[in-house]
Write a structure and sequence with these properties.
By secondary structure, the protein is mainly alpha-helical. Helices cover 42% and strands 0% of the residues. The radius of gyration is 15 Å and the shape is globular.
Length: 71
């Protein structure tokens, strides 16, 4: 998770302390606390406008994703 946050800060060119804290606040809930399993999926849109347009339509994505473990 640390590397993902660092990569986002680098790609978005975020250097201000308050903006860094915003990123940390967004990612911290994704870190397991020892009694659970969490997963992330990174979807990248290089173009800022395309990202804004596309991600708005993906708001219900988490209802369509799952994780199946087993043999």
């Amino acid at each position: 998770m640390q590397y993902q946050i660092q990569e986002m800060l680098r790609l978005e060119r975020i250097f201000e302390a308050d903006k860094i804290q915003e990123e940390l606040d967004a990612y911290n809930p994704l870190i397991p606390d020892g009694s659970n399993l969490k997963a992330t999926m990174m979807i990248e849109f290089p173009d800022v406008e395309e990202r804004r347009t596309e991600l708005h339509g993906w708001s219900g994505l988490k209802q369509h994703c799952g994780l199946r473990l087993g043999i």
